[in-house]
Amino acid sequence: MTELRTQLADALATFAAKPLRTAALDLLATLGYRSEKTLELDGSPAAFLDAFPENPQKPFRPDKARVAAWRGIHLLFQLTDAEIRGAVGQSELAFDSAAVFEGRNFRSYLFVAVDLAPDAYTRTQLSEITREINRLFLMPVLVIFRHGESLTLAVIDRRLNKRAADRDVLDKVTVIKDIRAVAPHRAHIEILHDLALGQLTGKDKRPPSNFAELHDAWRKALDVQTLNRRFFIEIRNWFYWARLTARFPEGAVKDADGHDSEALIRLLTRMIFCWFLREKRLLPAALFDADRIAALLRDWSAADADRDRDGRYYKAILQNLFFATLSTPVEERKFRSVRSYNGKNTHYGDQRFFRHVTLFAEKAPVEDLYKSIPFLNGGLFENLDEVPGRDPDIETEVRIDGFSDVVAKQPLLPDFLFFGSDRIVPELAAAIGETAAQRARGLLDIFRDYKFTIEENTPLEEDIALDPELLGRAFENLLASVNPETGTVARKSTGSFYTPREIVHYMVSESLVRYLLTALAPAGRPSPGLEPRIRELVSEEEPGHSLTDAEADRVVALLGTLRILDPACGSGAFPMGLLQLLVHVLRKLDPGNERWKAAKLDALPSEMREKAEQVFVAETFDYTRKLELIKDCIHGVDIQPSAIQISKLRFFLSLVIEQTDPARLRPLPNLETKFVCANSLLGLPRPDGWELFQHQIEPKEQALLRTRSRYFFAQTKAEKDACRKEDRKLRRELAVFIEGMGGSSSGLLASAVAGWDPYKSDRRAGYFDPESMFGVRDGFDITIGNPPYVRADEQSDWNQVQRKAILDSKQYDTLWKKWDLYVPFIERGYKLLRPGGVSTMIVSDAFCHSKYAQKAQNWLLQHARILRLDFCAELKIFDAAVHNVITILQNAPGATWNPDRRVHKETLCPFGNC
């Protein structure tokens, strides 16, 4: 550790013993920030608030600031341009709390320290306190929080108000959260090191000479994208290293070259999820510590793990964690029986029981360790092995995960993939497509060097740590390695496929605004003041709303029945963005959760109401909001099984974050019928006369939906098996009835309905049918996404087969010449809408000028209402050299409609060209 890093660790340690003001000044001095301009008060909240009366333009809100939790607050000092330049003799200048605001060129900066009552504060709570303190001043305020044994630094962006040039907006709050005073995480030391004044560079690589340059340098040092790129490169190198050495059973899907990319991405997803659980202290750290593992395994040492090729850590520790612990209720956890009957073990193929007993030194410590872990459920850790006798549809044994005591059926993942020291891997450069030698190291060592946060960042709140959204970005690049859209490996990309958070937020906000405008004014003539009030409701910058009680009741009811689909969901960016936004809106409209609870309970059948009410009573408001929105509103489809798994991971984590007591952790729901692996572009045609039989088909479909609703909450193996059995029976009955209708397409439809098993998460359906898969017959309220851009001249076999299948389906009216793959996605997204629904897609702006798009343009002008086109050519959205346009379409008459056109230059702006 360098001298500055050692000094930072020492300065942090003083927060455990010294008064807050002293410790905070010591830390800032270590970072190079000092000033004589200060105002010493007695440290009480009352004295601070008396000294700085509220700004009339931004009234201070004690409840949002959580003043009741303040044990003390200190104004440390004011920093001006002069101090940054290194000038001296400034102590004689008067303290100035009203520095002139000139654009974003504030002339000073304040540093404040707040002592909070010990508690587990969320990022949102700390961000709200930061905003409220900033409301008292006309210059930005950096806040240092001490809460319990940790501290948090919070930095805020302030910018010009786009609609009122004489005002500024309290924009994004960036936090370095939960820094341990004693034994701080290495990643936190690195972040603080990079924030030190002596480490910052401004223009021309020189030190910053004024506040504007200082803030820009801070922003660069706190750029989570830099963090993400660094993490991605490490994970990419590990992934290709693992492809060279890991082997999964023959039943696992293989690449064309025989490698196990899909299985490795599935493993990475499970490992990432476990690491998040470790950060939340739901998993014991001993499971990931080589020295402590050595006490559990027989004849295994931490030193040997760096070279070990037998893979005992994965088989003994991780497989038992994944399959026999996280997916198994605590009371059922034990080692499998050693007895056999007719030559077969009685627990053969049953994933609930621990295996590999001979690899452990003793059984009892292992069982005790695993029994200390809460039951998670959720399906992410379901063993994918197929064993006859466990499922009546399985006739042949297929090993995919290889959870078996039989060596021939096991995977091989050498221990060095988890514990290996940093090294040059000679074969890695060629595998990645680089010329320079490439390095790799053990996965657990990579994880340990980064700070993870389970709470997803938003455009207005950001923790400098790896959150699920950033991991989704890294994984979407890895998904290119098993991408059927191109059949190629995109080895050099570091972000070409993932939609940035700001774009997601803009698109989900605009979609929801347009949907609510129509729903609250069904005649198509919203009142002049309605749109500003809806935008105020949706905005994360506005603290309240102006809707009437009747309108608020209506919006809550609408959100409860909202149907959303991303037909190319990838790692779940748009579904997650909508979940976050909908929870935000519900918090505003219904802070006590009364409206939401009443609306959701009223919609349930009586037999489910009592159990649901128990959840509303026992869990946090946001947990019940998220759970019901996931259950009823959000749907995702992707053609890649790994993408679906990553989407599920993010939604699981969004529920885990809302549960604070490990002792009463509620098992996760099963999302197999919310995110499905299917080909979105190929639908299932209905036989002639389908409508005539609808009254006979509907009861069977409703029974199927009820079964899948029960499965959503099923926890035990018996409950899941019963639902799966009933699902299979109902699918077959429905298929027999459909086939009996006759007609050329009835056989295809019957076979597809019977054959699609939502519970086999490693399989993809060759079609997408919202009615049989999601129970959505009359369309979605919102379809949204970033579909793949694949040109006609892209010569992969997959692309050519897909294009032929799309044309042969005769389901599209917009395809012409050398159409790009995003064109049918636009049409499909629109046709999946119910009347009044809104479809928002971000695609290449070639859609506006290419010859192949002319037919699609004309078709949309005749059949759709084009609400708006957002031209983003001047924005750098993706790493790839592509310019973009956002299309916002509505399923409504549009022949006389004049589309809104917006050109975005520096940033996305919902109010006009910007």
Brief summary:
The protein is of the alpha/beta class. Helix content is 41%, strand content 12%.
Q: How does the helix and strand content classify structurally?
A: alpha/beta
Count of alpha/pi helices: 33
Q: Label the overall shape.
A: globular
Number of strands: 20
Mind describing the biggest β-sheet? Answer: 8 strands, mixed
Outline the fold blueprint.
Elements: H1 3-13, H2 20-31, H3 45-51, H4 62-65, E1 70-80, H5 81-84, E2 108-116, H6 123-135, E3 141-147, E4 150-160, E5 168-180, H7 186-195, H8 211-221, H9 224-245, H10 261-279, H11 290-294, H12 302-305, H13 312-326, E6 334-335, E7 340-341, E8 344-345, E9 353-354, H14 363-371, H15 416-419, E10 423-424, H16 428-432, E11 439-440, H17 443-448, E12 461-463, H18 468-479, H19 501-520, H20 530-538, H21 549-561, E13 564-566, H22 573-589, H23 594-602, H24 606-618, H25 621-632, E14 634-638, H26 641-656, E15 675-677, H27 694-713, H28 717-740, H29 746-755, H30 770-774, E16 780-785, H31 797-809, H32 822-831, E17 833-844, H33 854-863, E18 865-871, E19 884-890, E20 900-903
